Amino acid sequence: MKDLLIKQTEKFVRNELGEDATGHDWYHVDRVRRNALHICKEERFGDPFVIEMASLLHDIPDEKLNKTVELGRAKLDSFFKTISVPDEVKEHIIQIIDTISYKGGRKTKLKTIEAKIVQDADRLDAIGAIGIARAFAYGGKKGQPIFDPAVQVREEISLEEYRKGKSTSIHHFYEKLLKLKDLLNTETAKKIAEKRQEMMLSFLDQFYQEWDGHDL
Ligand code: ADP
Ligand code: NI
Fold it and tell me: For residue 29, which ligand has an atom nearest its CA?
């Protein structure tokens, strides 16, 4: 039964996200699922079914993929009407998806271990080599520059400002990516993040060397 539900959910998500090129593609979702199940196994905590379902569905209502937040939520709700999942499990999955986003996650305290694990899994995919690739893919799609030394580095930038392109992909490392390692919930994710953090720092180092021509 659970296997069938997972298959149905995979099919729905593949269909919804297949064409996306902003870093929210199916392969991102698949990596988040794999990361999350790995953390769950290592930590010996959490319900793997809830974790897998929430991982698969986590980007469906994302503001960046829908005209409005409400439309995104409606998409998720109508999918749930087509599969037979007990109400309390469905509520839990929706609650995880609503609370894990970076913006929501900083204000809202995560209630369950499953939410913490899916959030860590999503954050791991925003750092390291994959994180670097996703940042430039996203920036390119938004028409944001790779880097501009005249742009100031700021602690936080609003979604509106992102949309207006008032940042650069390199700035995004300081605004978000380099901070993620200290926001992780589980020891398993923290361990994985160490190498990914080093990778980003050495990338930035080399980037500035080349930008300034110091390696010539
Ligand atoms: P997630 O779905 O992983 O929680 P987001 O929806 O915020 O994260 O972003 C999706 C991907 O796009 C991430 O890899 C993130 O780092 C990247 N991204 C988001 N905003 C920017 C930005 N302003 N510049 C560059 N990359 C960005
Ligand atoms: Ni995601």
Answer: 2
Report pLDDT digits (tens) over 3-20: 999 999 999 999 988 766
Measured distance CA(16)–CA(176) in Å, rounded: 26
Please say whether the beta carbons of 147 and 211 come within 8 A. Answer: yes
Out of 1.10.1200.10, 1.10.760.10, 1.10.3210.50, 2.60.200.40, the CATH code matching 2-212 is: 1.10.3210.50
Ligand 1 neighbours (beta carbon < 6 A): 23-24, 59, 62, 64, 101-102, 122, 126, 131, 134-135, 138-139, 144, 162, 167, 169, 172, 177
Give, in degrees to the nearest 5, the angle at Cα 40 between 51 and 186.
Answer: 105
- The amino acid sitting at 184 is L
Is residue 71 within 8 A of residue 134, CB to CB? The reply is: no
Per-residue confidence (pLDDT) for residue 80, from 0 to 100? 96
Read off the pLDDT of each residue in 202-213 and give the average, rounded to a whole number.
98
For residue range 83-130, what is the model confidence (pLDDT) as tens digits?
999 999 999 999 999 888 655 445 567 789 999 999 999 999 999 999
DSSP conformation class of 109 = P
- Residue 97: closest CA among 171, 7, 84, 79: 79
ipTM (interface pTM): 0.96
- Which residue's CA is the closest to the ligand 1 atom numbered 15? 135
Instruction: Identify which has the larger pLDDT, 152 or 189.
Output: 189
